[in-house]
Amino acid sequence: MKWGIRSLLAALLVMLAPMRAHAVDGFALEGGWEEGNHPTDDAFRLGGALVWDWGVKWLPFHNWYLGGQWEASFSYWDGSRGRTGTGSLADFGITPVFRIQTDTPVAGIYPFLEGAIGAHLFTETELGDRKFGINYSFGDHLGGGIRFGERGQYEINYRFQHLSHLLGSPNDGINFHLIRLGYHW
Fold first, then answer.
1. CA–CA separation, 23 and 38 (whole Å)
2. Which candidate, 143, 145, 151, places its Cα nearest to that of 105?
3. What is the domain extent for residue 107?
């Protein structure tokens, strides 16, 4: 287990290395609920993220382009009902997020679609009846939203996120529906 944590920390440092040295470009707050069909699939989640915009415009097409941002996130999960294991945990993550976006407003808003795969570290290996097996996981998400305001500084978006690992069992994984509110300066 010690080697796994060291490997995850080394991977996080490698991913953080290309970040620009200046301060964060924004932050986001999020809340969400677990998606599932099991009677004890009732976890909810609250958290936040610091955001570093990459400042790139890849594959421009008219007013659209592929851009992105780094997100360093923290969230608290609570799955207290129907549990046999740990009822809550904290999740720390680092994620490169790719966005198809525009820098020209459409009807006063800046719509975007996004996708990502990042690394996550959990404080526990269980949440209720779910057994993750290890303390780290991959988190991938797809989502979309809008930025608005005079400079597009405000943001609201929806994400569907799946977290699991590829290292054997147990690996119950977990899915969340998330609503995020953000601000970019």
1. 42
2. 151
3. 2-184
Residue 128 is given by DSSP the state T
Which residue type, as a one-letter code, is found at position 29?
L
CATH number at residue 169: 2.40.160.20
Side chain identity, residue 156: I
Question: How many distinct structural domains can be found in the chain?
Answer: 1
Q: Is pTM beyond 0.85 here?
A: no
Eight-state DSSP code of residue 39: T
Q: Residue 96 corresponds to which tokens in the numbers above?
A: 């490169």
pLDDT tens-digit profile of 22-54? 579 999 999 999 987 655 567 899 999 999 999
Structure tokens that stand for 47 in this block:
């958290």
Contact 90, 76 (CB under 8 A): yes
For 120-175, write each residue's pLDDT tens digit.
Answer: 999 998 887 788 888 999 999 999 999 999 999 999 999 999 999 888 788 888 99
- Say how far apart CA 22 and CA 42 lie, in whole Å: 39
Nearest to 36 by CA among 76, 100, 70, 79: 79
> What percent of the residues of the chain are helix, what percent strand, and what percent coil, each to the nearest 5?
10, 60, 35
